[in-house]
Amino acid sequence: MKILKFGGTSVGSPERMTKLLDIVNPNEEQIVVLSAVSGTTNSLVEIANYFLAGDKKKGSECVENLYQKYKTFVVELLPATEFQEQGNEVIDYHFGFLAGLANDIFTSIEEKVVLAQGELLSTTLYHIYLKSIGVPSILLPALDFMKTDEDNEPDIPFTTKHLTPLLEKHKDNKLFITQGYICRNSFGEVDNLRRGGSDYTASLLGAAILAEEVQIWTDIDGMHNNDPRIVKGTKPIARLSFDEAAELAYFGAKILHPQSVFPAQKYKIPVRLLNTMEPSAAGTLITHDSEKGKIKSIAAKDGITAIRIQSSRMLLAYGFLRRVFEVFERYKTPIDMITTSEVAVSLTIDETAHLPQIIEELESFGTVEVDTDHSIVCVVGDFGSEKHGFASRVLEGLKHIPIRMISYGGSNYNVSLLILSEYKTEALRSLHNRLFE
């Protein structure tokens, strides 16, 4: 069994949706995970926000506008009268439900139900389309087997327990359709997976049934060795390890959420990143193995704030760093990079909601300096201790750019450098020329 996930742009129009069969093979055992049609989730967020704010009129107008778009979608996707009627019944049901929320008390619980409608619509309409062209498939409701526990973490054993009987019940069928992103929480309420959305669903399903592989289909042919929006001549990376992929995702590679493939990594399920627009492209294969002795890619993460705490109390003092970290823990603020000297510690964050409170507490330790508008440039590859020369090539590529911090040795897979954001474009291009050309 393979898991194939398609994002919103891959099902963004009736034409795109019909062309999924260029990739989906009805004769192979596959679970197809679909996101909402592109633009739908944004509209649903807008609807929920209006209802939460008590603006029922604007919320209802947004419901009607989205409904009209789906009426056109159904006509184009399902031209045959019989199946068009089925499609209209589906959208009438879901949009009737959304319209009815204007008359009820609206809370965060209803908000999550609203956000689930996009995936429920896309999967049901695709299931009807397959039926209309004579391709057998089974629609599996994700709310029957996707669940999070009390800590909002996915419950993989629950998924295995409840999904396996559904697959066995239809063992003569090879093609299954289900929703990405949505689940139930520990109270049984409709909820969502947040981190990584539909990619996370695909990875969790792969882990739960020990799939042959997970395929994540997007509109780009795998992870590239630099940001193609900024640097010309980037190339897709053929192979990455899970750790390398996670580093790149965390530090700016938008194609993948850094935590979305963790279940596949834990259960040793290969993940392929592939391009819906170019199905024949090789894409990127992510496994536990890595090509040794190579620099793989460069990524950048914006919106970074650097904080330096300078204190003579650090000198030969144990427990100092623990107390510093506890400040960030209290305000649930993750730290990206950290460097230390005998009398100072510098670190970076990208969540600044509680920055004033954090600075106030840190000032009890010593002098605090804060620098904003920075970017982290991350170079990922084989930086194991037995390798030599790679780090010097990275620094050589940035010799003309001021560097605020360097993090090297935290893992065998990356060198991270903090620079002012105004230098980011030049840094990415210069490193590309130095490392790949």
TrEMBL record:
Gene Ontology biological-process entries: homoserine biosynthetic process; lysine biosynthetic process via diaminopimelate; threonine biosynthetic process
InterPro entries: AceGlu_kinase-like_sf (IPR036393), ACT-like_dom_sf (IPR045865), ACT_Aspartokinase (IPR054352), Asp/Glu/Uridylate_kinase (IPR001048), Asp_kin_monofn (IPR005260), Asp_kinase (IPR001341), Aspartate_kinase_CS (IPR018042)
Reactions it catalyzes: L-aspartate + ATP = 4-phospho-L-aspartate + ADP
Protein keywords: Amino-acid biosynthesis, ATP-binding, Kinase, Nucleotide-binding, Transferase
Residue intervals of the Aspartate/glutamate/uridylate kinase domain: 2-275
Binding site for substrate: T41, E119
E.C. designation(s): 2.7.2.4
Name of the protein: Aspartokinase
NCBIfam families (UniProt xref): asp_kinases
Highest taxon, organism lineage: Bacteria
Pfam families documented for this protein: AA_kinase, ACT_9
Matches recorded under SUPFAM superfamilies: ACT-like, Carbamate kinase-like
Residue ranges constituting the Aspartokinase ACT domain according to the UniProt record: 377-434
Protein family (similarity comment): Belongs to the aspartokinase family.
